[in-house]
Design brief:
With 242 residues, the protein is α+β, with helices and mostly antiparallel strands. Helices cover 20% and strands 26% of the residues. Helix 1 crosses helix 2. Keywords: Isomerase, RNA-binding.
């Protein structure tokens, strides 16, 4: 990676603005490899050097990867002046500049959402050619038939797009069945529109898995946590639950 300005490195780790980090440095509260540094433009390699602020070592992370259990009523956006966003839900310790949701869930859709500042990973994760399937649980207003399952498997033609083949199955039967849907696209309102094309309305929709990564059942709606390296790899695991 090479060396960068010390104030820039600290700001990238959510330790304050560049100006605030510069003040920390000038006050002698920052050390590089055990040596106090008082110039904000001093250079350091955060992946090699040991950085401490007020005596505490900084665990440098080039990027951050978060799992959020998105609740209903929140926008999948970085910021919005009129409504709460998924970024607003993050605790202060997990926030940093440049965070965005990697893929979107509709305002009334809940479940697994990845938030990161790594654009390359988001692109890999969302590109249909990567074959990263998204698994949803849905409650619909009418029974699902074999004809519906076959239509999903063939790829539905909507007014303005053709959907790639998708999986569909029944988890709990009844007049308003609980079903699973597996797609590898993320077009606007896609799952809802696919069911509408079959004469059914989605009453509730939750994303429960991306690739081989399931939503952590310990996360309550609105809660988030960092992903481990092994969990990141699971996103690109082609194995699926269904």
């Amino acid at each position: 990676m090479g060396k960068e300005r010390l104030d820039k490195i600290l700001a990238s780790q959510n330790l304050g603005s560049r100006k605030e980090c510069g003040l920390l440095i000038r006050r002698g509260e920052v050390a590089v490899n055990g040596v106090i540094v008082k110039k904000p433009d001093a250079k350091a390699d955060p992946e090699v050097d040991i950085l401490t602020v007020k005596g505490g070592e900084i665990r440098f992370r080039r990027h951050i990867y978060l799992m959020l259990n998105k609740p209903q009523g929140v926008l999948s956006a970085s910021r919005d002046p009129h409504a709460p966003t998924v970024i607003d839900l993050l605790p202060e310790k997990l926030r940093r500049r440049g965070l965005f949701p990697a893929g979107r869930l509709d305002k009334d859709t809940e479940g697994l959402l990845i938030i990161t500042d790594d654009g390359d990973l988001a692109h890999r994760m969302l590109a249909p050619k990567s074959h990263v399937y998204k698994l949803y649980h849905a409650v619909v207003d009418a029974p699902v038939t074999q004809e519906d399952i076959d239509a999903f498997a063939q790829g539905l033609s909507l007014d303005d797009m053709v959907c790639l083949p998708a999986g569909l199955g029944v988890l709990e039967d009844g007049p308003q069945p609980l079903v699973w849907v597996k797609i590898r696209e993320g077009k606007f309102h896609q799952v809802k529109r696919m069911f509408l094309a079959r004469g059914k309305t989605v009453l509730r929709l939750k994303r429960v898995q991306m690739g081989g990564l399931p939503l952590d059942p310990a996360l309550a709606p609105g809660e988030s946590r960092e992903l481990t390296e092994d969990e990141l790899k699971l996103i690109f695991n082609l194995a699926n639950l269904y």
